[in-house]
Amino acid sequence: MGRAMAVLLMAISLGCCNIVNGAPPTVLTRAMPRRGADSCKPLVIAHRGASGYVPEHTLGAYALAITMGADYVEPDLVMTADGYLIARHDNELGLTTDVAQRPEFAGRFRTQIVDGRQMTGWFTEDFTLAEIKTLRAVERIPNSRPGNARMDGAFDIPTFQEIIDLVKSMEISEGRTIGIYPEIKHGTHFQHLGLGMERSLVDTFHRNGYIGPLAPAYIQSFEVNNLKELKELTDLRLIQLYGGNPANQPFDQFVTGTKLTYAEMATPEGLREIAKYAHAVGPEKNYIIPRKEDNTLGEPTNFVKDAHAAGLEVHPYTFRAENSFLPAEYRSESHSEAAIGDFNGELITFIATGIDGLFVDQPDVPLRVRDICLENKLQ
């Protein structure tokens, strides 16, 4: 995995990382029953890895999340020009790699429409995997995470297969099952380019032994039609994501001319429709507890109850410890973007609504907050 990975894992073992609110949870010993990826509730899904501590979507971020005890690691997937699945939050590379400092790629800089929005930069679909592998990852939000920015350049851009290989190798050292929870990014965009990810993702999962609804895997998308397509391709569990603005449409629904909005999908009727093809829903957390005008939390909605009534699990996104992401009542007095607030308080409030899992940038914190795992549930 390279020198950077070895250095990171050594640092983890020596406890040098600045973990939020204390030390990471105790690692299970060999004498204990093997913990399954779904043994604990709510599931702790390491959002882009332990991205609160290490630049997102790197093997270092995923390795740290696993060492902390995360149940699942979550890679966002996009496609290269030669058809390889790689982990990036967006197909635009400028925010999370050093591509802007690479003169050999200056000619790839362009403007295009992605999911109805004009974007300018360097795009994964214009690079082969070999070219992508020459780039180095950088921190997306350095003002909020200056510690992460110190690792700029330490990691390359991993393929989906490399993430699977990491997970399987660390299952041996951790003595437990670790789940993988990829998201298909910009599905319609890549389909129109002839680079659809759905079949490739399913084939990669199946080839690596992830088969059936009990496998430690989920596939997620903000779009609808590709999830329905995936339902015909695999029995792996699927999750319907919701955009942050309920008035918006999934992009594939906009393209096909339906009137379906995320707000309609959040109604009891909409949730029952989703249950025909998905195992779970992934709403932005304001669907569960909206914020008031003063940025404090309001009263919980019926979303969790209605989803459970439809037979769906609820895995909201995204929980982050920094002040700039927290509700007002959980922020510390510091005005620094990087300051850590009362993250435990926010997590406890949302867990009390009955959610079944959560996407989080600092996975060590909810691991200490949630209930004890069902250690006798093996997978």
From TrEMBL:
Entry-linked CDD domains: GDPD_ScGlpQ1_like
Broad class of enzyme this protein falls into: hydrolase
Superkingdom of the organism of origin: Eukaryota
Keyword set, alphabetical order: Glycerol metabolism, Hydrolase, Signal
Record has Transcription as a keyword: no
EC number: 3.1.4.46
A Pfam family that the UniProt record links to this protein: GDPD
A molecular-function term among this protein's GO annotations: glycerophosphodiester phosphodiesterase activity
Segment forming the signal sequence: 1-22
Family recorded in the similarity comment: Belongs to the glycerophosphoryl diester phosphodiesterase family.
Name of this chain's protein: glycerophosphodiester phosphodiesterase
Organism lineage: Eukaryota, Metazoa, Ecdysozoa, Arthropoda, Hexapoda
